[in-house]
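Risk register update: the risk that structure generation would not scale has been downgraded. Supporting records follow, first protein first.
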Amino acid sequence: MALNLEIVTPVGSVVTAEAEEVVLPGKLGEFGVLDGHIPFLSALQPGVVRYRKAADWQRLAIGSGFAEVGAGHKVLVLTDSHARPADVDVGEVTAELRDLEAELKAWSGPINPEHDELRAKAAWAQARLDVKNEPGAKH
């Protein structure tokens, strides 16, 4: 039986699909979900969501969020942002990441919410580059 995947952002649902397998970027590492998985809740970090129906893999970059694997073959992803491979301008995002990494390297103050925000922005930029540059990504 297929998994029912839904990816939702603050502006609404961006993916509603049946999938045989879903791979998500958990805060403690990447994890996969197959039919019959035990229900659980996980925090997500910026990264690439992969989902498969037959041999067709789809990819989507997501920001921070949460995933709920529930009874009834449901995988719900709540995230603050998303980008498809075709949405990513590699030159623009590479420049953005370079600037953010320079700011982080030059950081001399205490680790505070402003520093955490820079790290989160850098992680989001890296996720967008990863979804664009991954083998098999649709450009």
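Supporting record for the second protein:
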Amino acid sequence: MSKAFTKDDSSDAPLVVPARAPLPAGATNYVTRRGLALLRDELVRLRVERGRLESRSAEPDGPRELATAVARVAELEDRLSCAQLVDATDASAPREHVHFGATVTVRSDGGGERTYEIVGVDEADIACGRVAFVAPLARALLGKGVGDVVTLRTPRGEEELEVITIA
């Protein structure tokens, strides 16, 4: 009989846990208030899921699913333990330069405008305009002021971006 028609016992296969967004070695795990709340909410959901899976551990895939949940909880607890909150609403922080937590509007050399928020690695979502502080775009913008122009290397070539506003 063909292997395609038999049940493959995958319990011997190595456990694969989806990796979190990488944090470069030695980089501080900066988070915004929103990012910290999202991580804490995710941890609550994962712990509930782990509890649900503990009650199903006798099922065929139970031990494997439980091991995955345990690993995900441990990884998230580790990420939270090193999280450093940066309060972007702090009135004493300078606002004339792009900083962690800032919302920045840039104009490309083609005239189009885009807005980005500089956030932690776990909160990044480019589709929503949230860029991780370790991303090339964020690194190019950090420390720049309104009117400054940065050159960003992209797969399409070099692109010049002018900082229009910082909030």
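Strands lie at 29-31, 83-85, 103-108, 113-119, 130-132, 149-154, 157-166. On this basis the risk owner (M.S.) recommends closing the item.
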